[in-house]
Write a structure and sequence with these properties.
This protein is mostly helical. The chain contains 13 helices and no strands. It is globular and about 55 Å long.
Length: 304
C-alpha cells in the first residue's frame, strides 16, 4: 500500500465549523422576518418615550435568542420526521452534522440568554415577568402540527408578539399601533407559511401531520393564503393610519401590497418550484423594506 492509497483521516471539526453549522441549523438569516417589526414598533414607541441604548440592545438580543431557541427546539423535536422527508433529510441533525446533545445545549443556552436579555429593560418589570410564558409559547409551536391544521397561525401568533413585546418593554403599556402591526404579522406570516407548507402536503398526509395544504389540498390552501394576505394589506393600511405615519410609508404599503400579489403569482398549484423564492426573498424585502421606509418617514415627517 502506497502513501497515496492510505486511508485519510477526517479533518478536525473546528469551533468555527460548529458555529456555522448551528447558524445554518436555525436559519439565522430568517431572523429578518420578525426583528424589523420589533424595531419598527420600538421606533414608534421612542417617539413618545425616551430612548435608552440598552433598550435597543435588549430588543436585538431578545429577538435573536428567542428565535434561535425556538428554531433549535423545532429541529430537535422534528428530527425523525426530517430524516424521512426527502426535502429535509440533509438537515444538520438527520445528516449527523450536529449531535442531539449539542443542539439541546444550544437551545438551553439561547433560552437562558433570552430571559437574561430582558434585564436590559429594568426598572420596567414586564419583560422579565413575561419572558418564561412567551418562551414556552414560542417553543410549543413545534408540536402544533401534531394536532392542528392551524399550525401556520400558531407560528404567526408567535412572531406577532415581537412588536407588542417591544412596545411593552419601552412604554410599559400597549396602544393601537403595535396591535395593528401585530395583526399585519399574524396574517402575513400565516399566509406565507401556508405557501411554504405546500411543498410537504403529501408527506404530511402520509405521516399524519396536520397542515392546511395536507387537509384541504394545495389549490384551496393557496386560496386561503391569498385571503390571509389580502387581510394583511388591510391591516397594513390600518397600521399606517393609527401610527400617524406619512406619505412615504403609505407608498411603501402600496409597494408591499404589490409584492404580496406578486408572491401569489409566483406559486401555482401545478408549479411549486418557486416557493422558496416567494418564501424568503420577497418576504425579506417586505420586512426590511417596511422598517427602512418607516424610519425614513419618521425622519422626514417627525411625529408631534
Amino acid at each position: 500500500m502506497t502513501a497515496d492509497t492510505l486511508p485519510q483521516s477526517a479533518p478536525p471539526v473546528t469551533v468555527w465549523k460548529r458555529v456555522t453549522d448551528l447558524l445554518g441549523l436555525i436559519r439565522f438569516s430568517h431572523t429578518v422576518f420578525a426583528l424589523p417589526f420589533a424595531l419598527l414598533s420600538a421606533l414608534l414607541a421612542w417617539q413618545t418615550a425616551p430612548f435608552h441604548p440598552q433598550q435597543l440592545a435588549g430588543i436585538v438580543l431578545c429577538m435573536v435568542f428567542a428565535r434561535s431557541a425556538a428554531m433549535a427546539f423545532n429541529r430537535l423535536v422534528d428530527r425523525d420526521f426530517d430524516a424521512q422527508n426527502p426535502r429535509t433529510a440533509k438537515r444538520h441533525l438527520p445528516a449527523g452534522q450536529l449531535s442531539v446533545g449539542l443542539v439541546t445545549t444550544f437551545t438551553i443556552l439561547c433560552s437562558a440568554g433570552f430571559i437574561a436579555s430582558t434585564l436590559c429593560f429594568l426598572p420596567n418589570p414586564w419583560p422579565l415577568r413575561l419572558s418564561v410564558p412567551v418562551l414556552l409559547f414560542l417553543l410549543s409551536y413545534s408540536y402544533a402540527k401534531r394536532f392542528t391544521a392551524l399550525c401556520h397561525y400558531w407560528l404567526s401568533a408567535a412572531l406577532m408578539l415581537s412588536p407588542l413585546a417591544a412596545w411593552i418593554a419601552i412604554t410599559g403599556g400597549i396602544a393601537w399601533p403595535p396591535v395593528w402591526l401585530a395583526a399585519v404579522i399574524f396574517f402575513w406570516v400565516g399566509g406565507f407559511d401556508i405557501l411554504y407548507a405546500t411543498q410537504d402536503a403529501e408527506f404530511d398526509r402520509t405521516q399524519k401531520l396536520h397542515s392546511l395544504p395536507s387537509r384541504l389540498g394545495v389549490q384551496p390552501a393557496l386560496r386561503l393564503a391569498l385571503a390571509s394576505h389580502l387581510i394583511t394589506i388591510a391591516c397594513l393600511f390600518a397600521f399606517w393610519k393609527s401610527a400617524g405615519l406619512g406619505p412615504l410609508f403609505l407608498a411603501g404599503a402600496v409597494g408591499v401590497s404589490l409584492l404580496l400579489i406578486y408572491e401569489h403569482w409566483l406559486v401555482r398549484p401545478n408549479d411549486l418550484s418557486r416557493v422558496n423564492v416567494a418564501f424568503f426573498n420577497i418576504n425579506a424585502v417586505i420586512s426590511l423594506g417596511l422598517l427602512a421606509i418607516a424610519a425614513l418617514d419618521l425622519w422626514i415627517f417627525p411625529k408631534g
